[in-house]
């Protein structure tokens, strides 16, 4: 009997002769030798292209996190520094004298602007945490993102969705307040209004990026389902 038992002998050829007789190519792989604790790598092959897909998703997710940090950082920095003081002079004919007044407006005077500032800070911190986690995951497992079936991936999708809805809500409120300031007699505060509008615009961009991050999760699940 040949070494390795009857299974590996010339008599039992795993169906090679039968496949040759039918003119079929031989795809069969021999069974693993006896005594192995775990099967060889050929028996643990992942679907073709899955590793490349994971790397592509990882790069996309990493890029989105970086852009989220940039846009939210700009948004709350501009809003936090949004303040304008106007000096006005008046002449009194009754007293035949001039007097001066100052009026100051800042972001804390408008509630929706406070919301824009606060939520952008939260999303910026959240994106930084996700970015750090991506690098930690890459250093330990060799990939930017964990599998779509893990609990962490599900929590990430949940937080991405919630924060995306919150961002678009405060951005809409901030845009409405900025429009009311221009139309409500505060047009002289042009710098204040422009900065507020710029901060709101950055918030809208951050919302789009966060929504795309949330959309990656169902796309990954769909690809896993198709691969299986």
TrEMBL record:
Domain annotation Casparian strip membrane protein: ranges: 57-209
Transmembrane feature ranges:
56-81, 113-132, 152-175, 196-219
The organism is: Ceratodon purpureus
User: Domain of life of the organism in this record?
Assistant: Eukaryota
Which InterPro entries does the annotation name? CASP_dom
UniProt-listed Pfam families:
CASP_dom
Principal localization reads membrane
PANTHER family linked: CASP-LIKE PROTEIN 4A3 (PTHR33573:SF50), CASP-LIKE PROTEIN 4A4 (PTHR33573)
Summarize the subunit comment. Homodimer and heterodimers.
Keyword Coiled coil set for record: no
Q: Where in the cell is it found?
A: Cell membrane
The annotated topology with respect to the bilayer is: Multi-pass membrane protein
**What's the protein called, per UniProt?**
CASP-like protein
Q: Which UniProt keywords apply?
A: Cell membrane, Membrane, Transmembrane, Transmembrane helix
Q: Which GO terms describe its cellular component?
A: plasma membrane
Q: Which family is it part of?
A: Belongs to the Casparian strip membrane proteins (CASP) family.
């Amino acid at each position: 009997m040949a070494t390795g038992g009857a299974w590996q002998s010339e008599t039992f050829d795993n169906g090679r002769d039968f496949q040759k007789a039918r003119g079929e190519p031989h795809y069969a792989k021999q069974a693993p030798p006896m005594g192995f604790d775990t099967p060889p790598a050929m028996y643990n092959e992942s679907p073709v292209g899955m590793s490349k897909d994971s790397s592509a998703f990882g790069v996309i997710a990493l890029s989105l996190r970086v852009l989220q940090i940039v846009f939210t950082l700009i948004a709350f920095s501009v809003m936090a520094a949004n303040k304008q003081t106007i000096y006005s002079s008046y002449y009194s004919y009754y007293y035949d004298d001039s007097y001066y007044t100052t009026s100051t407006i800042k972001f804390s005077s408008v509630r929706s602007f406070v919301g824009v500032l606060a939520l952008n800070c939260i999303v910026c911190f959240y994106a930084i945490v996700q970015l750090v986690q991506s690098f930690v995951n890459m250093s330990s497992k060799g990939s930017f993102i964990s599998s779509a079936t893990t609990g962490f991936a599900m929590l990430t999708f949940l937080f991405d969705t919630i924060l995306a809805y919150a961002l678009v809500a405060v951005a809409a409120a901030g845009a409405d307040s900025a429009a009311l300031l221009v139309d409500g007699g505060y047009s002289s505060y042009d710098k204040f209004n422009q900065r507020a509008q710029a901060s709101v615009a950055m918030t809208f961009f951050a919302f789009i990026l966060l929504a795309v991050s949330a959309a990656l999760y169902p796309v990954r699940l769909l690809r896993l389902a198709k691969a299986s």
